[in-house]
Design brief:
Elements lengths: L5 H17 L4 H20 L3 H20 L3 H38 L17 H16 L9 H9 L12 H9 L6 H33 L7 H32 L17 H7 L2 H12 L9 H19 L3 H19 L19 H22 L3 H11 L13 H16 L16 H18 L12
Amino acid sequence: MLFNTVSFAVFLPIVLVLYWFVTPKKLAWQNFLLLVSSYFFYACWDWRFLFLLVFSTALDYCTGIMIADAGSRKRKRFWLTLSIVINLGFLGIFKYYNFFVESFADGLSLLGIQSSFTTLNIILPVGISFYTFHGISYIVDIFRDRVKPERNFVNYSVFVSFFPLLVAGPIERATHLLPQIRTKRVFSSVQFNDGLRQILWGLFKKVVIADNCGVFVDQIFNDSAHQSGSTLVFGAIMFSFQLYGDFSGYTDIALGTARLMGIELLRNFAFPYFARDIAEFWRRWHISLTTWFKDYVYIPLGGSKVSRGKQIRNTFIIFLLSGFWHGASWKFLCWALINACYFLPLLLSEQHRKHMEIVAYDRVWPNLKEVWQMVATFMLTVFSRIFFRADDVGHAFSFIKGIFNESLFTFPTVFPVAILLLIAAFMIVEWFGRRNAYAIADLFQTKPVVLRWGFYYLVVFAIFYYSNSGQQFIYFQF
């Protein structure tokens, strides 16, 4: 069930009516409704994988209690290790087994050794990377005494499978979400209306920006050998807008939907295309994943409080793990390696924490230096994402090779003016809303009602006018 489909538009109001009008007086019933709704939502993808989700949930629920009740550090570590190994084992089988088998066979063939290995013909369960990381962070936090185990199975199951975040995040923490699940939610019209606004903006990002950019991105990348250099550059730029509109649009819908039920989820995007360097970009893009790797991998490895050599090692480990998390493919590892190389000069010069506040926070417009920094950071990101979007590493290199010739200085053969104007309008709104949690959080709130509602109707009209048959979200494949 996609957020941008009629089925979800029917599903969500039914859940909200039951949630606020049938079960509001009993927290236990309210949480049970959330659990049933979440399992139904997930089963709409493929009901068979619902058993895997329930097993993963039960595993971490039980091991969390065993860790808390264990009498010694050794036994705590045993249960922690058991849960992590099983969780990563399932993730490895479904997501990485074929990659390792095929890569090993390719390596042997380079040595002149012919081999035959059996690969698995299996479908990747939707959201497995996200709910697996939910569970791992939960049991690690119990092991570190950061959180007490949840002994109510329904409550814990809602934490893992809450349907707005189930298939593409954000990756929640038990310290943030579980207390909200345990606490009675009270309806707030202010919070409800804010959720509706964020859903509206998320749908605009997805349906109007991402899906329409995707049409031209597919056209260019699928026939890259016959495109001019300028058209290839244009296609790479359009893919960056597609990816941002698609993923941050999903997140906005997820956060807005949760807010309709009185639940606040972690922020996942903070206007990354206004970043002035790569370090700032990664603090603003897919925040829940980057902070997850920082807290559960980078800091345990020593973080920045180690020798310069180990800092470099830790940085490359984090980026390569991030690439591998995105998919079992060498192209994602190349994408991660490029970003690690981008980050390294900032780390070595100790400039990676230079830009912590949003650009031009107390000014209307950026200065020329900031404009240059933002454009340069964006173009570095665009270049690395050629590997992200390409079919494989070979395709990425041929795509890049096709850019650097005399045709780079010609006018692109693909140049959709209407979509470019929409992107320009979109980025202007994002710029003026950059101080908020999302762009239109307080847009026109102090202006006349006619102006505010006129803007909302314009956004709704654009969503219906440019809708393109409910295309799937890109990050569902991860």
